[in-house]
Fold these 4 entries.
Entry 1:
Amino acid sequence: METENIQNQKPPTQEDSSIENVDTVATLDLKPENISPSESVVHLEAEQEYHQESQEKDTSINDTTEESDDKPSSTPQSIDNTITLLRDQIDTLQIKFAERGKHWSREPSLIISVLALSISVVFSIIGLRQTFAEDIEGKQETLRQTVVELTEIQSEMAQIAQQYSGNPLLYREANVNLNTRRAVLLDTAETLVEELGDSVDPSTLLSLAWQFQIDGRLEETREFANKAFDLSKSVLLQSAALKGIGSSYMTTGSPIHDLEQGRDALRRSTELFESRDNDLDRFNLADNLLYWANLERMNGEEQMADDLLEQATNAAKGINILHPGRQTILMQIQQAQNNQISQDFLDPRGEWQLTFANDSSKKGRVLIRFEQQSQGYFINMQVFSNGKLLENRTGSAAFLGSGKIIFQWQGIRYNEQSQTPLPSSGASILDVLPDSEELQGTDSAVGDEEENIILKRISP
């Protein structure tokens, strides 16, 4: 009987197999051709038994689809629902994939656009950097030229002193013009330094610091010397910068006068050479100590000055006796030990007219300015005879304890007839009176007789 039923059973069509064996179809990627007729009969019996159990337990279609292959779904509706669910899931995945689009590496137009943009950005950056570098280089060159012009003005001041030796009014006018030009150049330099930032050469900053020092602009001196120190990698430049900072604080009459701040800077300048064991560093150490001592003495700190001069002497004596700088620095220290500088003495800076009491045919000009030298003051003296340059002298000025100021100088003397240059040297000693507009004293050149001279202030 069972055999008859089996024989009378119609073989399942492809559609019936798909409906009755949804789990198998789902498992086999919806390929009903993989199911044989014998398997369909077995599955049909199992389906009826499973259908009764599913009604008793009232399970959902989703739970049914998760059962194993020997417990397939029973109703066409549940199968349709399952297939619909599967199709919806596939559609959802397809939509998500479509929304995601192609990978950027498979989009030629996108790649070309990105490359074009990248190349444009790179070339723009290169162009901007090149323009910036050219701008910096141009400003640096302008600043260097400005410093050169400031230096040349000093020479021009000496030249007009010779040109207008017999006409103080014309000399004053020319001097005012040069000082106006100098002020403009300093303002230009200050602006360029601000624009260049850290691209300024430290030596240029130091040169400008000295120019400000000459003008008495000590706040700018400190500012530029500080910047030079920060940018400098050279010990010598760092030392010079610290000396500039120290002098800006310790110069009498400075708007930022502060002895302790100045001493701190000068102490640091000497420490740069204390641990370095060679003749050049011993010389620099002695010179820094001498410079510091002179500033202390200008502030009336005699004991401090004497202690520093003793340290300078010990450093100088450590220099090899054959070193050319040894004797020079020892002589400068010896001279400084004889100086007794008081704040009551006049400030000798400025332009002075020189006359010789014994020879009315000889006249001259004396320029005295403060400079970063061991003696504190730099002098340029020009002597004329009958309107022709007779002698050009340069040297240093220092105060003596007896209320006098001494000029020690070296120079070039010209033969009055052939104008042949010959070396010369000597000293001028003048009486110093507070707030005096006239100095009187003697001038002694090597090989010449002592002459009486008078200096009258032309301009401060």
Entry 2:
Amino acid sequence: MVSNEQMEIVFKHYGKKYNKEIEDVLMAYYFDDVSTKPFLPTKDKCIKKIEVLQSVIKKLKTFIKKNNYKDEEIENINYDVDRFRQGSVPDFMCIPSQRRSIKKERVKKAGFIYFLQEYTGKIKIGKTQYLDKRISNIGVKLPIQPTLIHYFSTEDMTGSERKLHKKYQKYRLEGEWFKLSKKEIEKIKTLTN
């Protein structure tokens, strides 16, 4: 007879309430039913915290009885249960959280920051690696070719653009378009990085 104590296999579905489908998938995965492995939820979901779910224990007991597990197999299950109690969670259950814990370092790209003035006076603050190509592409979208009022090269075009967008946030109209005063435009013409 398998006791509750022996069969405490515990999990919590990250970000969502417990549901039977996940319990069934986890059980099938735990008992190595390969056909269900692709359905184990992994995207932004992970076994996060160890807690006892009585229904899992009941289902596992039923599963073990129904499939006539041998003592050796039950011992292996109990070994995993003990590892769970000690805070060890199998790798396959934590791949998403491991991915989340690795921070991607932003790659700095050299390029240009440009300031285009549209015929209505709006200023576009943008970034590009190919200045001439970018200006001509923007010109195609507008009724009148915009005027390049200033540009500079930078080793980190994304960072530089972000700083300028933040600096002129109160003048933002939408997206990368700003309504700047003549005084601000004159200041822009002195920027070098």
Entry 3:
Amino acid sequence: MRHIDILRKMRREADEAYRRVEEREREERRKTREAARRFRDIVKAEKLYGEWELEYAELSVEDFLKMYRVKPLFKDLWHMAEHCTDVRGCYRMLAYLKLEGREDDLKLVREALKMDADVEVLVTLLYQGKREEIARLLRR
């Protein structure tokens, strides 16, 4: 009787091992399919970008964001970034300052907006950490 119990246990362990192998293979096939799908999506997006490049150039940034249903995370920063020529780049730097907790720098940008200073240069200098040049710029 003991021999039969050992054989049954070995059989259960073997079945469990086969099941785990099959599950792992299924997961690998799923990941392969997902990677292939993503690659096709990337190729399709690049192809469409090449075809639609002129249309994208004619759209404003807000139109582009609306088209893809993307909303800026920090609306107050977005309104500050609208005073720059490169709105997306400026917004990205302002968001970096906000996420780093540099509220004093953001207050400085708000003051520069009130004084009608060059916001884009100011944000770039703040992002790079060049405070002496900012002081010279704001004295003018």
Entry 4:
Amino acid sequence: MTTHGHHPRNDLALAEAALFLAPQPLTRRGLAKILGGVAQAYVDQLLEDLKERFEDPSRGIELHIEDGRAQFRVKSAYVNEVAHLAPQHDIPRQELRTLAVIAYNHPMTQANLIKIRGNKGYKHVQELLERNLITSEPHGRTTLLHVTRDFLRHFGLNSVDEFRFHFPTAAEENAEALARGIQMDDDDEDGAVAHGESERLDIATDTMSTDDDSDTSAHELANPVHRENSDHSLTPSESENDTDDEPYIKPSEEVEHG
């Protein structure tokens, strides 16, 4: 472990503080600037030191480094118990279901989403755009919806494929519902996601259920078994060809596709 006691301040501690407070992953260049314009090679050494330090089993968080960006995140073993404390814990149940449908079918046209979720889907799309959990772009007379890297970060995922991996039947069920023109029916009124809910609801079943009255909690989306994956891009699935007329929703910041 490298020590930096000869510096006028503890650069390792400063880097840790910056990563803790940053709302988004920090780039090497950004950290170098915070540290007073140090060389990026020095930043790399600091990040490696921090990563090693937080690999200790006594730590509940870890340093995740991807594409030259670094951020702290909760270790997968503790996600279930603390996910309700995350910034997105207040997503209403119906909105969370809509988000799950988009993630399963990513990328998905808004027209096809509305066929599954009904007209309430328009409102959900707007709210998810404002949360920066999805983006939209023109696609013929409809729009194409993508989940964002913020979605992956908030729910502790490395890729959309990882999301599908844990709920493998969901995409097929959604496709079948779309083909039959089935709409998912939420009988209950929208409610904020339950805090500390103990029972885990299977999204693969819940997203296509028409009679389930259970609350859905954020930790259902934040419960991956992390797998090593060298491809962290948001890889599109088959795109839908749909020409239904519908309002175009202006996209937020576009997702960079690898």
